[in-house]
Amino acid sequence: MNPNKKKAYENAANTIIKNLAKRQMEGYYCNTKEDALKKVLEIIPKGASIGWGGSMTLNETGVMDAIKNGKYDIIDREAVSNDDEYKATYARMINADYFLMSTNAITMDGELVNIDGRGNRVAFLIFGPANVIVIAGMNKVVSDVESGYKRVKDIATPPNTVRLNRNTPCAVNGRCGDCMSPDCICNSTVITRRSGAPGRIKVILVGEDLGY
Question: Element (H or E) spanning 141, and its range?
């Protein structure tokens, strides 16, 4: 990456981290996805129970492979095969030691912007797991909440609907159609202004373009 862009990312991250602290959230900056993986494994103790929300960023950083192959108590939502298992898995996840996710956008002022389909990801961000680790590439940084909302609708959601094989206007046209389609994945919007529990939410900013 261009060194000037790298330095700009670092400067922006330092500003965001200061603002996260005002909102009772912990912030970290890692230059690379490899450094981000090391930070995650540094934070989570062996034997901890871990759940996660759907995220390309978790895959791209190697976090998913590391926790699945590590000495952790994995709460694997992808192993669910029926309604009873679904209920049991999410009942365990609400009591997890750690919940891993990315964010659709983060503002320079330290607010998280997320739009969810089923809502399980934002639900556990808000309540339940003792700790939430949010990993985000600096490509997800925006100036304010409104810009974050637009980013999710026009930049993040179209490729996600393609990935999930959804029949929505954005999957076809590449831009939000503000649809009410049965396949719509923009059902719940959550703005995390502040963490009620100090330090519960930990945000790892990465000096690379990650996820959607």
Answer: strand 141-142
Cα dihedral across residues 200, 134, 28, 41: positive or negative: positive
Q: Is the dihedral of CA 173, 178, 184, 186 positive or negative?
A: positive
- 13's CB contacts (< 8 A; 6+ apart) are 27, 29, 138, 205, 207
Query: Does residue 79 come out as left (phi exceeding 0), alpha (psi in the -120 to 50 range) or beta?
Result: alpha
Measure the CA angle with vertex 113, ends 48 and 178; round to 5°.
125
Alpha-carbon distance 91 to 104, whole Å? 25
Prediction pTM value: 0.95
What are 24-76's pLDDT values in tens digits? 999 999 999 999 999 999 999 999 999 999 899 999 999 999 999 999 999 99
Contact between 9 and 201 (Cβ < 8 Å): no
Which residue type does 74 have?
I
> Nearest 5°: phi and psi at 178?
50, 50
